[in-house]
Amino acid sequence: MPKRTHDRERETDDLSAHTLCSVPDFWDRVTGLQATPPGWVIAVSAAVALLIVGSPRLWRVTRIAITIAHESGHAIVSVLTGRKLEGIRLHADTSGETVSRGRRNGPGIVLTALAGYLTPPLLGVGAAGLLAAGRVTLLLSVLILLLLAVLVMVRNWYGGLAVITTGAVFAVVIWLASPALRAAFAYAVAWFLLFGGIRPIIELAGTRRQRVRLPPGRRLAAGNTGSSDADQLGFLTGVPAWAWVTLFALFAVAALVIGARLLVPWPVHVPFLRSS
């Protein structure tokens, strides 16, 4: 019996030592460098992301991730500009809303309204920068931390479920996926943020174009034309809403160009082609 007790204590000590050693190991895993994946992996990840964004069915399922980024942009900027954040609500139709209190005019509310459509492309560029630096796991870990911050701001059950599910996917990839699969997934996420930041702007422009063509009576019946970020910015600044939509589009396209430049190794080596 005494011998068994001694063995049990030794096993406990070994387990404690393993736990203590796992902390620096985990930190090294998060912050460690990872080699750039082959060009074909980067190309396939871009193609997959573009397919998801371009497919109506797949976009309907994944668009909530872009909505999370969009609304988190509103929320973060509202706090940074001194407004009182009431919370974020995410809906099953992939729409969302962020409510904050403060002055009804001035730079604070303008920057808050401006941040939504700019945040997904900006996150895409940031993700591309981390991947270009070889920080694959760090990128996924940062996204999990951002999702935890958003979760604190969410005020409805569906929104909480969407944020938790998204974060769980990232966590599973970090812990269970091989380095190669983890890198492919991270590159797909970056491409998805870049491509996915453009599609809502196209949808916004299309919706506004359809409403403008309607007669005034039918336009009112179709819904509130002043509910979009562009319309709110137009009301707050006097600059036409179409100009804000154009600004959103230019920003998103510029982000895609910069992100692609960071994600795609340069110079590009095309297989089977040799210089003469």
Gist of the model:
By secondary structure, this protein is mainly alpha-helical. The protein has eleven helices and two strands, in the order αααββαααααααα.
Describe this structure as you would to a colleague:
By secondary structure, the protein is mainly α. It has one domain. 75% of the residues lie in helices and 5% in strands. The protein has eleven helices and two strands. A two-stranded antiparallel ribbon has the order 1-2. The chain is globular, with a radius of gyration of 23 Å.
Topology:
Elements: H1 2-31, H2 39-54, H3 56-80, E1 84-90, E2 96-101, H4 107-132, H5 136-153, H6 157-176, H7 179-196, H8 199-213, H9 216-222, H10 229-237, H11 241-263
Helix pairs in contact: 2-3, 2-7, 3-4, 4-7, 4-10, 4-11, 5-6, 5-7, 7-11, 8-11, 10-11
